[in-house]
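Per-record layout

source: Oreochromis aureus
name: G-protein coupled receptors family 1 profile domain-containing protein
length: 357
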Amino acid sequence: MTFNHSLDFLNGTPWYVVECTLQLNTTSRRIALFLMYLFIFMVGLMENTLVVWVNWRRRHSSNGVLFCIINVSLSDLMVIMILPFFMMEVTLDQVWLWGRFLCKVTHLIYVINFYSSSFFLAFMTLERYFSLSRPSSSSFFPAGGRKRWVVCGGLWGLSLLLALLENVHVDLLEWDEPGCYMLPEYSYTEWFVTVSFLCLVFQFLGPAAVIITCNVLIARAAKRATDVQNRRDVWLVHVYSLVFVMCWLPYHLVTFLMIIDDLDPYVFSCNMVEVLYFSFSVVQCISLLHCVANPFLYNFLSKSFRNNLINTMLNYIPREGTAERVGPRANAKTANEGGRDPGKLSNASTSHSDVGS
């Protein structure tokens, strides 16, 4: 950003030298960011891989919520795979050593996840609400026909389109050291404000309104339902909303304040501006915690998913010779028990991944 403060002096000293008295520890920030990225990479990779591995065999299920869960995990896996580049960039203090192509590709993948994860979470919550309140209504992601793939492709396509609007100005810039930056050649302020506003509306405000509203309605419907098997889980729907807001609100709040500073550089003090730009990379990293939170909330807290995970793991354990030892009667009993779905919950269940399991 370019500020026109060159004519503002106090006793012959530029204004920003007088006002900027805050000393921020960038070394501690680099260490903290590296550790946070490492945590998200290791835990998020394990969680989302398990979610896709367990649910992939049921991807053609009529359960639209399950279909959304798979897409959310695939989206999170995409951004998790590029985190090593971010970790090295943070360690090298924003120096980019992997060329122009990877600069643009990694940023494109990051922004696609930025949108697609929120879109599929919002549609998942809508699907969950309609399955409780209107069981006979049509699904957004029906098992048969082309509607499921059209809606799914539309959400991914919209995410790609919004990401390209930003990624077109991402490039490798050679200053003192090479760096991967978003910096248009002309009309920087107009571009930054426009892209940030689109991000605020499409990635946060719109999905947050859907997620919070539907989860409140789901909680009310579940409390009135007579077939809820575990009423203690009703509070989970509010946790879904809270986690989404906690992950994304700090990022959008800092971005919004940066927009204000870009439009009117005299609004905030120099120290405040320093804090904003210092904290931007921190809240950007915090937003990626959704890659760790989503699998835990929408899958591992679900009894249905845990049962499917155990059954999937058992399928890969060698059992040769077992059938000969236990006899035909025990085999028949095991087969009958295996036909049951231990994770099947009522239609009024508040767990997203229990719907239609």
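summary: The chain has one domain: 23-313+341-354. Residues 1-17, 322-350 have pLDDT under 50 and may be disordered.
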